[in-house]
Amino acid sequence: MKVLIADDDAVSRTVLKRTVEKLGHECLVGEDGLQAWEIYQRTHDVEVIVSDWMMPNMDGLELCRSVRGLERAGGYTFFVFLTALGGKDHLLEGMQAGADEYLTKPLDAEQLRAKLIAASRVSSLHRHMKVEGIAETVGDQGGAPKAGVRTPKSTRRQGRPQAGTKTWDILVSQGKLTEEQVKQALEFQEESPMDLGQALVSLGFISEADLARAQAQRLNLEYVELTEADVDSEALSLVPEKLLRRHNALPLYREDGRLVVAMSDPTDIHALDDLRVSCGCAIVPVVTTEENLQRMQTMVFSVGDQVAEILEEAAGPEAESTGELELGAGTEANEAPVVRLVSSILQRAVGEGASDIHLEPQAQELTVRLRMDGVLRELMSVPPKLQSGVVARLKVLANLDIAERRVPQDGRFSVRLAGKKVDLRVATLPTVFGEEVVLRLLDTSTLKSDLTELGFTPADFERYKKIFERPYGTILVTGPTGSGKSTTLYATLKRLNSPNRKIITIEDPVEYRMGGINQIQVNPKAGLTFASGLRSILRNDPDVVMVGEIRDTETAKTAVEAALTGHLVLATLHTNDAPGALSRLTEMGVEPFLIASAVDCVIAQRLVRRLCESCKRPAQIDDEVIAELGLSPEVLAERELRFYESLGCAQCGGTGYRGRTGLYELMVVTDPVKDLILRRASAAEISRIAEEEGMTRLRDDGMLKAASGITTIQEVLRTVV
After folding, report:
1. By the 8 A CB rule, do 668 and 467 touch?
2. Helix, strand or coil for residue 595?
3. DSSP state, residue 355
4. Distances (CA, A) of 273 to 34, 48, 352, 384
5. DSSP bridge pairs for 62
6. CA–CA separation, 370 vs 357, rounded Å?
7. DSSP letter string over 158-169?
8. Which residues contact 227 (CB under 8 A, 6 or more apart)?
9. Are 98 and 64 in contact (CB under 8 A)?
10. What does the buried/exposed string (b/e) look like for 434-457 if buried means 16 or more CB atoms within 10 Å of the residue's CB?
11. β-pairing, 282-287 with 356-361?
12. What's the pLDDT score for residue 332?
């Protein structure tokens, strides 16, 4: 790669030249901006310019503008500013002039190497497109596909950008980003070295999909949102699975001797070369997000032709029997197929984001269902011939007794799927047709680490933040099983987790393992219960204590006393609403004066499915219905709120929903509420006063989220009574 250096400082020029040549690149040197411009004009294969900012005759800013103003058919020139100023306004001015990256003085050789690698990738991609003759195919002006070129259903074609257009320029022009946010990201880059796009995503200014779309437009490539329908099995067979996973790539289809491949990083020229050598044809890259790509890889590589053959072969004459199943038959003979089948089921569950896998024996088959976004969906039916082998395989993985089929068993194991570690809790249950197995998938990479992502309104979040930042007190989270209580507590613990705090938890079971936190698993057989464990925890000098569940009077009293002695206690309780938790503690034998002194707030919560952003559409709701929900057309218009309905598409599996969010009822124990507790008031009376003090009911929070287009009225009514 040919690199042009523009710097009026002799020492800096020498250091830069030596560093660039040491990295294996050819180097040209200009002693000021004007000389560098003259060299650039007569040298047509300069791929990178590293320029100082302040220079005589022509400064770096003018040099950058001149380079961007000179259209070249040979390819794109990557421009890197070298500056000692480093202010965010200063850096933004350089990037507005057309610079791709910047380096701050004194020179860091490792950072220069990273910038040159990025430049090499962009230049290599342009050369690859030119050599393969596919530039016109993937980036034709005007956005219309060429005749005879197939476009995936989910593809949105990008127009050709102007020379020097940056990813953030595109995002600003689309209204998804402001220049002030770019400045903040540049400042964040100095503290945490990373790509500007990654910094924008990390700060929450844009989504990964927004970034991928803008990068595709900048590189003049397609952007795709992948579905299974976009992946042709013949094209998939052209490249080994191991190679595709290594390079984060997925073949979509083959046409006119070229293989269209979805990639999260289309500038990775080494990946493009490996794919070309492997399949023996030209590669046309298209862009997608890493999350979308890995999810589709998991889906298409899980239930494939081999698994279909296994199920077809197993569905022989023995499947016609209506008698009870022989659990021990056929395990050894079908060992290899069973291993592949179990692996396939696990991969599919992870790929589709399932929270649970249910394997339920029936008279004629073993039904496999996945719980996704709180709702069960059938995945496949396994013939009885393979039932015992599938169950035995899972019991072996979970270190359970495969010979014991008469009593329930519990176990746990971990696997690594799609590049991420997933913990699985396994529970078996004997039924009349054999053992039922349920697996709970605990993927720590999908655990939302920030409380702001869970669904709190800004006002409720600020109120909650003031509570959990106190040095002592009690926070109770209530709701039925599967309502997201553990997620809320873990997200709170992540906020509290720091070297100057000692945090101890006692749980049953420990769902997610967190660094820096001492976690205890309840073991009743050994005498370790919530009550006994909590007493022992208090002798180990903790600052914060989390109790997985308050189940009995002793645990409740100990937790309250811990809060009164200077500890912050977080715990869960099974009640339907927040005011009911205070009555429940009274019923469990805790004195009202202790409850009023120790409990700071109670959160009741539920989980509702989020509308799929790809297919939701505005819904017309009658004014009478809106009035019954406690809203009014005037309030909706004033807040610019609108209801939406679900349709269903390939992205959401036809359900109309994708992902879940929380509904929250946050009750702060204020002085008026404390008075009611001391008078042993009913939950209804406490609820009325709490609403006057600012509490939003679960139903009301749900309706506001429905009116904001996050979920639907039907989903809220399904979840909240």
Report:
1. yes
2. helix
3. S
4. 38, 22, 30, 46
5. none
6. 5
7. PPPPPTT--HHH
8. 153, 154, 296, 650, 651
9. yes
10. bbbbbbbbbbeeeebeebeebbbe
11. unpaired
12. 41
Q: Which amino acid is at 533?
A: G
Residue type, 611: L
Region class of 323: left (phi > 0), else alpha (psi between -120 and 50), else beta: beta
Which residue type sits at 497?
N
Nearest to 315 by CA among 298, 337, 336: 337
- Dist. CA 136–CA 435, nearest whole Å: 59
Please tell me the distance from the alpha carbon of residue 3 to that of residue 11, in angstroms, as a whole number.
Answer: 18
* CA pair distance 68, 361, nearest whole angstrom: 67
User: What residue type is assigned to position 306 of the chain?
Assistant: Q
pLDDT in tens, 505-562: 999 878 788 888 999 999 888 889 999 999 999 999 999 999 989 989 999 999 999 9
Looking at residue 505, its pLDDT comes to 94
In which residue ranges of the chain is pLDDT below 50?
135-149, 152-164, 318-335
Question: Please, are residues 64 and 39 in contact by the beta-carbon 8 Å criterion?
Answer: no
Contact between 284 and 276 (Cβ < 8 Å): no
Q: Which two tokens mark 53?
A: 């900012």
Residue 644 bridge partners (DSSP): 618
Q: Which of 52, 53, 51, 47 is nearest to 25 (CA)?
A: 47
Angle of CA points 458, 499, 455, to nearest 5°: 20
Q: What's the pLDDT at 444?
A: 61
Instruction: Map tokens 């809203």 to a residue.
Output: 631
Query: Can you give the pLDDT at residue 567?
Result: 94
| Token representation of residue 211 | 């970034």
pLDDT of residue 302: 64
Relative orientation angle of helices 384-397 and 335-351, to the nearest 10 degrees: 70
Q: How far is CA 68 from the centre of its chain?
A: 37
* Structure tokens, 619: 């819904």
The per-residue pLDDT for 326 is 32
Looking up tokens 């991928």 gives 212
Provide the 8-state DSSP code for 230: G
